[in-house]
Write a structure and sequence with these properties.
The protein is mainly alpha-helical. It is 79% helix and 0% strand. It has two domains: 59 residues; 197 residues, no CATH class. The protein contains ten helices and no strands.
């Protein structure tokens, strides 16, 4: 049984935030307000989600669970495009297809092939697993999209040279695609390579704190990491490929109008 945290304990955790805030103030980073607002939003959102998930788990209704998963996917997709600096009106559906497709495929594989809970739509498995995979896809897609299009913008002469030498759009963008995927995936490769020695991952730690045997927690962690990594790679690649028809004009030049802010 996991030990509950009292109000006093939670206040002590918030007090710990004073340390990074003082560092930000001393270095004049200008992100104190942003950090405090992010912490406040996290607190309110997690409290509301916690209350909502309590009823989702009690109802254990597949339609309610799927509705919540849909909300998660839409919000994550909007966040990806916003952080990547791309116009949501142009890329929303293409990005949603890539993120939702890869996330649901990897989640479904883990739930339907590996775990096989009873019932198969058990909300206690569906919602957290989709959330973990989607959260990692969000970060990788932000990195890949931002790196891909900023790379082409910063090296426009190089990109145009590829085209003038006879390269197709796919061939001319391939170097930037490789760089974007490496940027998105390298942190996860580093994490997997040190997992268990440098760090104990969240899913494994949560299961152990919840009373599960370490061997069982390890199996779940290995499974979820494989699914997360697969979903990240597929989502990042497919998202970029689906965005190409919108991002480039008939002459294969990058449209400056796709960005939220001009360089």
């Amino acid at each position: 049984m996991t030990t509950d945290l009292s109000i006093t304990a939670m206040l002590s955790m918030y007090a710990l935030m004073v340390i990074p805030l003082l560092i930000f103030f001393y270095l004049q980073l200008g992100i104190i307000r942003e950090t405090v607002m992010a912490m406040a939003r996290m607190t309110v959102q997690l409290i509301l989600v916690g209350l909502y998930l309590k009823y989702i788990f009690q109802l254990n209704n597949p339609f309610v669970s799927l509705l919540w998963v849909t909300v998660m996917l839409v919000v994550a997709n909007l966040s990806i495009l916003n952080k990547a600096g791309l116009k949501r009106s142009l890329f929303f559906w293409r990005s949603l297809i890539a993120v939702a497709g890869s996330t649901l495929f990897a989640s479904g594989w883990f739930i339907l092939v590996a775990i096989r809970p009873e019932p198969i739509y058990d909300a206690r498995y569906m919602v957290p697993i989709v959330g973990m995979i989607l959260g990692n896809c969000l970060r990788s897609n932000v990195l890949s999209l931002e790196r891909f299009y900023s790379g082409i913008r910063k090296n426009e002469n190089e990109y145009m040279t590829y085209l003038m030498l006879g390269a197709t759009l796919r061939e001319a963008t391939r170097p930037y695609l490789r760089d974007a995927l490496k940027a998105a995936i390298n942190p996860s490769i580093a994490t997997m390579g040190t997992m268990g020695i440098v760090s104990l991952p969240g899913m494994m730690t949560g299961q152990i704190l919840g009373g599960a045997m370490p061997t069982t927690a390890i199996k779940y962690q290995i499974g979820i990491m494989i699914c997360i990594f697969t979903a990240m790679v597929v989502a990042a690649l497919v998202n970029i490929l689906l965005s190409l028809p919108v991002a480039f004009d008939d002459h294969q030049r990058l449209r400056q109008g796709i960005f939220c802010n001009k360089p």
